Amino acid sequence: MSAHQRPPAQRRHRRYFVLMGVCIALFVLAWGVVRLWSVPAAVAMCVIAMVIPPFAAIIGNRREPGERWWDESGDPESDRWWREIDDHRPGPGSGSGSGSGRR
Q1: Whether the predicted pLDDT of 32 surpasses 70
Q2: CA-to-CA dists, residue 69 to 33, 52, 86, angstroms
Q3: Which of 54, 60, 80, 81 is most deeply packed, by most CB within 10 A?
Q4: Is the confidence at residue 17, as pLDDT, over 70?
């Protein structure tokens, strides 16, 4: 299975773990190696690493197009009803409406 065929949740998890791996690597390299040559550079690396976790959380929780994990209610009747509405909704750019509806 290639990268573009992975399930959306698996892609989100991979992106999150890559960003968090970069964050940890920056901290470890900053205080294990870089500080021996330049403390200001090590501090700068830590500042950059400090900013990564919030962005990793945002990217890790961003939904993919067509993904509905956030609004599955668990009520089979309600979920069936919303799926039916989504099946009848015109695609992007195919209608003249404002695109209102549940997203």
Answers
A1: yes
A2: 42, 25, 14
A3: 60
A4: yes
